[in-house]
Amino acid sequence: MSPNRTAIATAIAATLALAWTAPATAQSTSSGTMAAMANTIVGKVSEASRGVSLEGAIVTVGGRQVSTDREGFFRVTGLAPGRYALQVDYLGYVRHESEVELGDSRGAQVDVTLRSTVAATEVGVVEVRASRDAQAMALNQQRASTNYVNVVSADLLGQFPDNNIAESTQRIPGVSIERDQGEGRYVTVRGAPKEFTTVSIDGVQLANPDAASRGVELDTIPSDVIAALEVTKALTPDMDGDAIAGNINIRTQSALDREGLTLRASLAGGKYQLGDGENQRYNATVGNRFGAEQNIGVLVSGSISRQGRFTDNVETLYQAGGGGFRPTEVQIKDYEGLRTRKGLTGRFDYRINPDHLLTFVASDSNFEDREFRDNLIIALDNFAAGSGETNGQARATFDKELRERTYDKTIRTYNLSGEHFLGDAWKLDWQASRSEATKTTSPRMQYIFRSGVRPQMRYDYSNPDFPVWTILGRPDAPATGVNVPESWFAFRRLNDRYEYGEEDENALRVDLGRSQTFLGDSGDIRFGVRTRQRDKMFDDERNRNGSAADFAALGITMSDMLCDSVSNNFDYFLTGRRFCRDIFDRYAGQLIASPNHVRLIPDSLTGDYRASEDVQAGYVRLDANWNRLTMITGLRYERTETEGSAIQFDSVTRAVTPQTARRRYDNVLPSVHLRYEFSPDTVLRGSVSSALNRPDFIQVAPYRVINEPDGTIVPINEGNPLVREAFAWNADLSFEHYLRPLGLLSAAVFYKRIDDPLFVASRDEAAGAQTLRITRAENGERGRIHGAELTWQQTFDMLPGALDGLGIYANYTYAKSRAELPFGLGQTELPGTSRTNYNLALTYEKYGLNTRLAYNYRSKFIQTFDISEPELNVYWDERASLDFSASYALGLGWSVFGEVNNIRDTRQIRFQGQRNRVLEMEGFGRSWLAGVRYQF
């Protein structure tokens, strides 16, 4: 068993064992000596029932207003000796008011415990409502923020049936996801391309195992090992500037977030309806406070899930021809795979005293996807006269194949940080971090068999989802459909491929700030420097054996490699028997050992590259407060130095030439954020900020592939080391009204003006009698994104009797984008822009029962551009999903729960240009899960 799995299993076992002996109530322990300096009031705010620290509580002292940090601490400095009224306001809890006396030579310490409004209204009864308390924590953190931030706690996300971090983010206003075989992978914020969003863990930007994009594959990270998700949509000067859409920060849990022991665990099992695959999930969290003053926190979280997923998939590729467009290739695939996701996070916090905190966090997330893909490929050519995109006739060539592919992705972060108050005014923060990501694809092998029979075939796409195919002139062919005889096929080739990519980033951040009085009634000024050094590489090796003699030496035919199971996608696309899963182990070795198994030189070289990116940054930030008005303004400077190496390959001469490239550029990123508080429950925010998006590494790698001429046209694919970064000005305005006892009504509008948006485009250059058609990354002139967000969250505690358990969680986002393509090729939407996204969840929590019916909708969006044929741009069609989750508390911390995903069995569809040209239709069915959970 691997070390990761051993650690997680040990944590789960320890948690479940401790659960039987854990006391029924949380221990109340000291938060440590909190002697404050003169002119200073320090304190801690926590809730009364479990001792959980309350972050985002608004504390008012003598007209000064501050908010509590994640440990519930607050600090008010620069006060004269005297008596002060202290008020603590926290949504969902009873407001606290008291009086504090500040002496001449010594500060004051205040510990405040708040009672939930639910507990307060039921005399003698404390009813803990987990999702309600989780919602309270998130809303209070959001309310206290000056810039525009959405916060969702892990406890609230845990009420949704989500498998990974990507799926969790889709519940947040303005956030949508791209899926792979029905499961969330990439995140899009406010309709911007996925590359416009950065992802971090506790402020450490994640390295990315994807070789082709900066968009982080968030399906790697389980949703069970986090404390909260923070989505910052308006960057402040102290934040990394490469996030035009925003930053998603994954916050880890800390043992110092609550008093006493932290103990949680769950185990669950279920099924996937399609393919009857297993659905298992296990997680545990163990943490405690140590030391004489309970000021040391140690916490470990672990998670394992296994998903036996089966996917029906049918694809049709359209190309220009016959005065319009025609289907030129059909692929009927079924996927059978096992996805294993593991996560392990450890956190150590040492609260030396109220002025000094040290933290070390290490996280490891691993995603392994082992997959078999059966595929029948039909290539169409030699079209009959009058053939179009709906009806026609063509010659058909059939390939039947099996691919076995396993990829293993890992993302690790290491984070050592400190927080230090230096005297009465200065504060020093620092962070040293490393992020690592690897992706290995091995094995990736593929048998291909081709039909020696190439019959005429009539096609009818009147129903684009379920077309009709009829093979003509062959009595041994089916009357309709493509379940052609196995005897038609002969060995074509064995493909053998290996891919490896890695990326790592070392970073250091130092921030120094102090209180200031030259602007506003109070405030702070901060300075900081940051360095990030990122390295990336990718290696692609491809080999092939296409010898019919080598296969004949095995003494078998394709039929000997087929088993009894049948491929019949959507109960309509019958393609015959599927391949046995052991044929690579049984037959590939002899083919690989043959001299005819050769390396494909162009493919094995042209995808390889190495790149480095060093970012040096500095900033100044000024915070000022005037009674109800708060301002953050400042300036950030970033210098970027890039270096890359790849090869130039000439397909005609077979010449290989190493290439290198370097570039250095500078960016200045100003911003200003305003927050006006009409009342403690009504907040107006406005901001103007700037950000950038650096090109993908593959776009600037200096590779160049000169392909074989097509007539007088010489196609060339290359990187563009000189392509510029996109730069954006962002304007945001939001209005929030917080509902008592717990809820939110909000509206926000946003506008982004983007200079130099990035596209992959082609241009022609004359070269004597030939024309060089060069395809590479290019900059458009400008683009824009604008839209609006609406949010309504509310618990209906004011309703009588059993109705007070009702709640609603709803949000709506509208986004529209437009960008100018390079070379005057026109305008288009940006990839990832859905006009409409919304979530609607109806909840009930009462008498130990917690249920949630969640509906998510995303309208269509463009995925990729076809510069030469814009009418064939690829779109994802609209999709809605309906999910349900429920849990019931058994007492003493135990509960049972269940989840059902994709209740309506919705499919996922891509199309080229318009809906009738279906590029891909994918179905993955429903899934369910049931289990037991313990929480102390």
Automatic annotation (TrEMBL):
Query: Where does the TonB-dependent receptor plug domain lie?
Result: 142-246
Q: Where in the cell is it found?
A: Cell outer membrane
Q: Could you tell me the membrane topology recorded for this protein?
A: Multi-pass membrane protein
**Record family assignment:** Belongs to the TonB-dependent receptor family.
**UniProt KW keywords:** Cell outer membrane, Membrane, Receptor, Signal, TonB box, Transmembrane, Transmembrane beta strand, Transport
TonB-dependent receptor-like beta-barrel domain residues = 487-903
Give the protein's recorded name: TonB-dependent receptor
Stored PROSITE patterns: TONB_DEPENDENT_REC_3 (PS52016)
Query: May I ask which residue range the UniProt record assigns to the signal sequence?
Result: 1-26
